[in-house]
Structure formats: structure tokens, C-alpha cells
Specification:
Layout lengths: L3 E7 L6 E3 L4 E3 L3 H6 L8 E6 L11 H13 L6 E5 L5 H11 E2 L5 E4 L12 H12 L7 E5 L2 E4 L3 E3 L8 E3 L6 E4 L2 E4 L21 E2 L7 E5 L8 H5 L5 E6 L15 H10 L3 E6 L12 H4 L7 E3 L5 H14 L3 H9 L11
Parallel strand pairs: 1-4, 1-5, 5-7, 7-8, 15-16, 16-17, 17-18
Antiparallel strand pairs: 2-3, 6-14, 8-9, 9-12, 10-11, 12-13
């Protein structure tokens, strides 16, 4: 059987890092990383492209676009793609790629490691091997993260642990699959992968691709006593604010000083900007209709609801939606579409 062709897109991160006197920093190239795991040659014919070699802390929306372009420039030449990435912002990049390259019939798999490839006790070798394995699977598609033996939809991942090898968790959605050394075990709902169905314009062999983002998006976490005038301070620099509310959707009626929060938020969206409501609680999502302190925002134009989406997916999706249009109604339509399992259809 002819081996599949996989493109490895190396971007840096811990997996590529070495200690050179000032702390870990990316030093190894993608080609050098593959030489540590010669077993991948048995899985696929592997080529490497390296658009950057950075700590993922320095990853920006413009870099997401570079990674997406790198993939799409070679999309027709390969059967799948593996993106090597630092763990700290991997969930943001996976979400961004889910919106920039939608309904991909070919898998785009992100991975990295908690310890450098050259470390004696690294997790990098198995993560790289299993990511290539998953990228060669006939049923794999769309954007995902394969890390620590678990495969997570690209919009549902969150880094949960800073040091342990099982760094990522799937938030409010089941993992797509588990990888047991060299065997893929799919979760029951995904035992047979969803095929391209022609919706939203895609064809059987091509994804729907976007190349614009609006990075002027600010994530604001409510804290007791926060001054509501923060909205007027943010207005000159940002087109959207993502408000991480208390609990299931609680927003204070009055700050310590300044206008009440309702006036400040209404003024923000009535000026043509976007506000997205989510919760700072990690699991189970938002419902603005439960408490009086949230219900006033449930149906106001320009106020979007993050439902059970991850904060990382909300940031990336808001940037993507605003990159396509400035029309508030159309932004809302784009934001509310389910893409790569990013939100549950309960609203």
C-alpha cells in the first residue's frame, strides 16, 4: 500500500526548545525533530515546512494566517497536515485554523510537548508519532489537537495543566478519539467520521478558506468592583469585547463608580461594536435567561452569546467573523453557526 504524504508544519514551541543559558527557547528545526522519531517514516512520507520558530507565547493572529497559508499553499499535494506548536497558545491556534480552514476533508492535526524533544524524559516523541498516525487515518478530517493520547476537536481544547503530560482537556464536548500507542479508538459519536456534505459551500475535496481576521478583540474578565468605565477606555482600540461573566451569566448592576454596567454595555454595542457574553466558569456554559442580572442582555442587538464555547474559540471566532464583515447582523449569523463542533445547538 502506498504511504500517505503528510506535511509537517513546524512553528517552534517547547518541542523544539533547548536550554541555552537564558531559559528554554526554540532551537531545533522541523527536520531535526523528525530525526528523533525515525518511526514516523513507517507511517507516511513526510515533508517539512517551517514558517516560523517561536515560543508560542509570541504567536499572534498574523501568525495564524501564516500557518493557514502554509497549509493551503500545499493542500493539494498532501493527504494530511501536522502542525508542531507550543502548548501555551495551541488551543487558540487550533480554534483559529478551524475558522480559517473550514470543513477540511483532510486532517490538520496540532501537537507539541510539555518537555523538549531532546529531554531524556520527553513526551514529544510519542506525541509526534501519534499525530502523524492520526493524520494518516482515513476517517480523520478537520482541525484537531492530538496530545497525550487524546484527540480533541480544534475548537474544544483547553490547556488544563502546566507540567503534566495530559496537558489538554476537551471542554463541554467528548474527545474525538483516543490513541493507544499505535491504535486509534474513536469515541462512539465519531466511530464513523463525518464526511463533507456540501453545506456552506464546500466541495468533497476542498475546504472553505478565509484569509482575514480582525485582531481588535479584547477578553475582559469580570471581577468584584470592576469599574464599568473600562468599556469607554477600551473603545478607541477594540472592535469587540468578550465579557467573562460570573457563573451562568451574572453581570453586576452597578460598579464602584461610573455608569451602571447595563448602560456601559448598551453604549458599547449601540456604537456598532460587538460584545460577546461568556462565563469564566470552565464547564457547562452560559445561559443569560436564568437570573435577573443576566436576562437584560439576552436579546439586545450586538450582544452575542458564547453558549458552551471555550474562551479560546470565542476569541478566534470573533476575530474571524469581524474579519469577514462589519454588519452586526451578519457577524451574529457567522458567530452562531456551528463550526467544527464549537458550540452545542441548544439555543
Amino acid at each position: 500500500m502506498t504511504k500517505k504524504r503528510i506535511l509537517l508544519v513546524a512553528t517552534g514551541g517547547t518541542i523544539a526548545s533547548k536550554e541555552e543559558g537564558n531559559g528554554l527557547s526554540p532551537a531545533l528545526s522541523g527536520e531535526e525533530l523528525t530525526r528523533y522519531v525515525p518511526e514516523v517514516a513507517d507511517l507516511a512520507t513526510l515533508d517539512v515546512k517551517q514558517p516560523m520558530n517561536i515560543d508560542s507565547t509570541n504567536m499572534r493572529p498574523s501568525d495564524w494566517l501564516r500557518v493557514a497559508r502554509t497549509i493551503m499553499e500545499s493542500y493539494d499535494d498532501y493527504d494530511g497536515f501536522v502542525v508542531l506548536h507550543g502548548t501555551d497558545t495551541m488551543a487558540y491556534t487550533a480554534a483559529a485554523l478551524s475558522y480559517l480552514i473550514q470543513h477540511s476533508p483532510k486532517p490538520i492535526v496540532l501537537t507539541g510537548s510539555q518537555r523538549p524533544m531532546a529531554s531524556a524524559f520527553t513526551d514529544a516523541k510519542l506525541n509526534l508519532y501519534q499525530s502523524v498516525l492520526y493524520a494518516t487515518d482515513d476517517d480523520a478530517r478537520d482541525v484537531s489537537i492530538a496530545f497525550g493520547g487524546i484527540v480533541i476537536a480544534g475548537t474544544r481544547a483547553r490547556k488544563q495543566r502546566t507540567m503534566s503530560f495530559n496537558a489538554f482537556t476537551s471542554v463541554n464536548f467528548p474527545p474525538l478519539a483516543y490513541i493507544r500507542t499505535d491504535r486509534i479508538v474513536r469515541s462512539a459519536p465519531f466511530a464513523h467520521a463525518r464526511k463533507a456534505d456540501g453545506s456552506r459551500g464546500q466541495t468533497a475535496d476542498r475546504p472553505v478558506v478565509y484569509d482575514k481576521l480582525d485582531p481588535r478583540v479584547f477578553a475582559l474578565k469580570l471581577t468584584p468592583g470592576l469599574d464599568s468605565r473600562i468599556f469607554s477606555a477600551l473603545a478607541p482600540s477594540y472592535d469587540a469585547v468578550i465579557l467573562e461573566t460570573f457563573g451562568i451569566g451574572g453581570i453586576p448592576e452597578q460598579g464602584e463608580t461610573g455608569p451602571c454596567f447595563q448602560d456601559a454595555i448598551y453604549s458599547w454595542v449601540d456604537s456598532g461594536r460587538i460584545a460577546v457574553m461568556t462565563t469564566q466558569v470552565p464547564e457547562e456554559g452560559l445561559d443569560l435567561g436564568v437570573y435577573e442580572v443576566g436576562r437584560a442582555y439576552a436579546n439586545h442587538p450586538g450582544i452575542l452569546r458564547g453558549a458552551d464555547m471555550t474562551p479560546e474559540a470565542i476569541v478566534a471566532k470573533t476575530m474571524w467573523a469581524l474579519g469577514q464583515t462589519r454588519d452586526v447582523a451578519e457577524v451574529e449569523n457567522l458567530f452562531n453557526c456551528e463550526i467544527n463542533h464549537d458550540r452545542s445547538p441548544f439555543e
